[in-house]
């Protein structure tokens, strides 16, 4: 897929055509310096000023090398065994597993994946603070008062697109 954006401008928007030619320099005006203004001059050092008299327009084109890929499938009933290992023979599979488990790259990969997996598990490990996890706690005293509710705060959605509440947890 080629990504292209073409800038289109009408010829009438170009302005007047420029015709340049070589000729001698001509002096249009000569203004002598004013000594009174020269006394008011204050030198600033250093001075850096960026000046751009025209609008900034640019074009960029990038073509990267194509990445060749193909889709392959595997039958996971028998697992991803190499061609020389028969998955139906228990002895061959055990020998192959032992050989792979001794490989140093396998051990490093398992250690790396273990730390990533632990991080993901800890992210999903949430506790509902209102669920009763221990039944043997002392029961609180039951009061005969009628249940009531009081509005403490109203939370408003700051988004322009209004969203509905999907979960409410109260105690």
From TrEMBL:
One of its GO terms (biological process) is outer dynein arm assembly. It is found in: Cytoplasm, Cytoskeleton, Cilium axoneme. One of its GO terms (molecular function) is dynein light chain binding. It comes from the Eukaryota. Coiled coil: none annotated. InterPro entries: Dynein_IC (IPR050687). Its main location: cytoplasm. One of its GO terms (cellular component) is outer dynein arm. Belongs to the dynein intermediate chain family. This is Dynein intermediate chain 2, axonemal. The gene is DNAI2.
């Amino acid at each position: 897929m080629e990504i292209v954006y073409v800038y289109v401008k009408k010829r009438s928007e170009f302005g007047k055509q420029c015709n340049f030619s070589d000729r001698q320099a001509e002096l249009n005006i000569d203004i002598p310096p004013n000594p009174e203004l020269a006394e008011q001059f204050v030198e600033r050092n250093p001075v850096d000023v960026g000046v751009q008299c025209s609008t900034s327009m640019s074009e960029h084109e990038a073509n990267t090398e194509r990445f060749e890929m193909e889709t392959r499938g595997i039958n996971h009933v028998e697992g991803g065994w190499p061609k020389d290992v028969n998955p139906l023979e228990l002895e061959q599979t055990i020998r192959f597993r032992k050989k792979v488990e001794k490989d140093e790259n396998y051990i490093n990969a398992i250690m790396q994946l273990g730390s990533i997996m632990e991080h993901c598990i800890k992210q999903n490990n949430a506790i509902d603070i209102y669920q009763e996890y221990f039944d043997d706690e002392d029961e609180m005293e039951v009061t005969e008062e009628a249940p009531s509710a009081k509005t403490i705060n109203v939370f408003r959605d700051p988004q322009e697109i209004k969203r509905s509440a999907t979960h409410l947890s109260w105690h």
